[in-house]
Amino acid sequence: MLHAQKIKTSVGFEYFSRKIGWDVTHSSNLKSLFFTFNLEIEFPKELSSNTIFGYSFSNYKDLTFRGLPFSLKIGEETGTVGGFIIGEEIRKGLIASEKLKIDGLGQILGFLGLKKEWKIQDLAVPGTAEGKAYWWRVSLGPVFTYRGSTKFFPYLYLNLNTLWGTFKMQEAVGELQATEKQKMYSKSFFCIAAGFNYELTPAFILKGEVSLLPYNGGSDLGLMIKAMYSF
Amino acid sequence: MNKKRIFFPLFIFPLFIFSWNFSYLKLDSYKKPNLSEQYNLHSKRNESGRQGNTFSGRGNVSAKPNPFLEETENANPEFDRNQILKEREPVSLKKSGLRQKRREDSSLGEKIGFLKQMRPSPYSGPRFHPSEVLVKFKDSFSEEMREASISAYRAKKLKRIPGLNIYKLQIPENSNVEEMVYVLSMNPDVEFAEPNYVIHTTAWPNDMLFEYQYALNNTGLPIGSSGPTGKSGADIKATASWEETKGEGESIIAVIDTGVDMEHPDIKNKIKSRGKDFVNGDDDATDDNGHGTHMAGIAAADTNNSEGIAGVSWNCKVLPVKVMDQDGTGYDSDVADGIRWAADNGADVISLSLGQDTPSMTLELALEYAYDKNVVIVAAAGNEGGAVYYPAAYDEYCLAVAATNYNDERVTLQNSSQDPGGPWESNYGPEIDVAAPGERIISLVPTWYFGSGSFPYGWGYGTSAATPHVAGLAALIKSIKPHLTASEIMNVIRYAADDVNSSSHPGKDDYIGYGRINMEKALVPIIIIPLSQIK
């Protein structure tokens, strides 16, 4: 039986841009900005669990639905869909020395989008579109933390990182009714993240992280800021 | 401390840092077409002289009797009404002087070559500038007030287009184009506000007569030698739609007509098979009249082959079915059989540039047969200025097509009075679904039509000529969306139409139905606008 040794709460902002493929030949960028509330529980044996809740704005610019009677494209600045974020993060200490600590870290994060309505303009009859999206992101890898200083702890997180999801679009134009599900997947699968934990007080920690996800022909970017408070 | 002072920057800061929109406006540089050069080319053609080669009216035929013109004079009125399915088009195929000009003008090839170099790659960038809008204030609004109003919106004036008094504004950093357009549009002193759309080159075939095909891309230039000038933009938006698709060879248009000249250089590579001849009872639907070849060319002439014309569907195939004889007449039975045969032999679309004024159960059953096999059927409304012909009037199974002209007007007795075949009027009635250009349409004629060695292209008129434009569009839709049913494709064509007579007949009407077809709307992905912004 595991007994909690420490409870941390935190709020954070995270942003990422991810190249997504969605059918054989097309791709676009999924950009997501989210605000999260985290509840982290530390257990004995260097094990901790972090439960994540939050709200996100995910932008699906250029996602196109060519299977519908009228092909639809999510526009430059009209493709932001709001939705809830849920997730779980497990961390396990693997190796620790005086100046270096290596943890194993795995995270699964889900975006459950809310329904969004659009208008299809300039047709001879009124038309609307209704979309709902979700995505899942999974990462797994070691975290190398330098513990040489007293308050500032830089780290490097190398992880396998993938994202997949679905966007379901319903179209209604006059007598035409149709639905298309667009499955998407990330083009990048490996992530190099560099970050730091800065102890403002023993109980209050600031965390920042920049991540780079290379893929064939480019790279994705991620940024994260978190403020943690321990009880 | 004020709580807002703490939380507002905390929330907003990341929004600025992680800028939401990283799109860049990127336009491939290209050389703009030299319109004056094209116009000069046009003018030279005008000067080439065609008097000796032009049909000027009914019966004025030199090389071969023109069946389009003869058939109404020779027809038996009784058969006309009850038994004979007549091709009634007041079609006048005029012999063009372009052939001679092409021989004479050795620089023509070079000029066509210039267009070929101009052919752009497909454009897939942003639709409009991400931080600019265009706004026109009402003239009564003074310049000082305009400037003040622009500042009030926290926008920055980038430019004022002199003469037009249209302002190019840079929108505030934390707003987006759609919002800004919406907000400006609400201002009673603003005449209009719109995004600054990205202009880009479109798919431009290198077919030498393409510039005369106003129906596909109306530049407002004269339509052929001494032809009328159309209204720029009064076209079916073909070039924009070809960015999305040029069709696939698997998509087949059955042209049920007088047959097709399968040796014509501008269509021989587009023929699916030698088809079926229900007039002579064989498997060779060769055209002995000319009408069918003209229709087939409009729908699917060989395109981007440096000669002749462009077809609506570049890559779709033609299945010729001959149901009318060399006089352009036939029987319901043959048409019904032709429809049935086409549906059984792979046709995705059936184009019927024919009709008569009496209902026929035989025809209706044939249409139902093909429709149940998911074939899109398109039929001409007729040119008598009366009720819609059959089979077009069978509303449930086919799209009835009316005709518009180069000014996006429905063809009437008045505006067609200068036609060589005499004035005519597009039929009308509640069955009309859409319209397409049917006035002064250039297309193929059989190689023998104007005599051996002649230039095998001519002008056509009528709802006959309008119909294959719609058939070509249906084939393009089918080729990229093969899962759609015939009914769905028909509705896409209807709903995508431009209501070009909305000032006199808003909405669907008896004259042009939902409007003149718009290939771009039917094929190119439509950018959707959030409902919340519209409200």
What would you say this structure looks like, in words?
The complex is a heterodimer of chains A (231) and B (535). Chain A has no helices and 14 strands. In chain A, strands 1, 2, 3, 6, 7, 8, 9, 10, 11, 12, 13 and 14 form a twelve-stranded antiparallel sheet that branches. In chain A, strands 4-5 form a two-stranded antiparallel ribbon. Helices cover 0% and strands 76% of the residues of chain A. Chain A has strands at 6-21, 27-43, 47-59, 64-65, 72-74, 80-96, 100-113, 116-120, 127-146, 152-173, 176-186, 190-199, 204-215, 218-230. Chain A has a single domain, classed as Lipocalin. With 535 residues, chain B is an alpha/beta fold. The two termini of chain B are 37 Å apart. A seven-stranded parallel sheet of chain B has the order 7-8-6-10-11-12-13, sandwiched between helices. A four-stranded antiparallel sheet of chain B has the order 3-4-2-5, with helices on one face. Chain B has helices at residues 3-17, 35-47, 67-74, 77-82, 98-104, 108-118, 143-152, 177-185, 238-242, 291-300, 332-344, 361-372, 463-480, 486-495, 519-523, 531-534; strands at residues 84-86, 128-137, 156-161, 166-170, 190-197, 252-257, 276-277, 317-322, 329-331, 349-352, 376-380, 398-404, 432-437, 441-444, 457-460, 526-530. Chain B contains 16 helices and 16 strands. Chain B is elongated, with a radius of gyration of 26 Å. At the A-B interface, strand 1, strand 2, strand 4, strand 5 and strand 8 of A face helix 1, helix 14, helix 15, strand 16 and helix 16 of B.
List the helices and strands and how they pair.
The complex is a heterodimer of chains A (231) and B (535).
Chain A: E1 6-21, E2 27-43, E3 47-59, E4 64-65, E5 72-74, E6 80-96, E7 100-113, E8 116-120, E9 127-146, E10 152-173, E11 176-186, E12 190-199, E13 204-215, E14 218-230
Antiparallel strand pairs in A: 1-2, 1-11, 1-14, 2-3, 3-6, 4-5, 6-7, 7-9, 8-9, 9-10, 10-11, 10-12, 12-13, 13-14
Chain B: H1 3-17, H2 35-47, H3 67-74, H4 77-82, E1 84-86, H5 98-104, H6 108-118, E2 128-137, H7 143-152, E3 156-161, E4 166-170, H8 177-185, E5 190-197, H9 238-242, E6 252-257, E7 276-277, H10 291-300, E8 317-322, E9 329-331, H11 332-344, E10 349-352, H12 361-372, E11 376-380, E12 398-404, E13 432-437, E14 441-444, E15 457-460, H13 463-480, H14 486-495, H15 519-523, E16 526-530, H16 531-534
Parallel strand pairs in B: 6-8, 6-10, 7-8, 10-11, 11-12, 12-13
Antiparallel strand pairs in B: 1-9, 2-4, 2-5, 3-4, 14-15
Helix pairs in contact in B: 10-13, 11-12
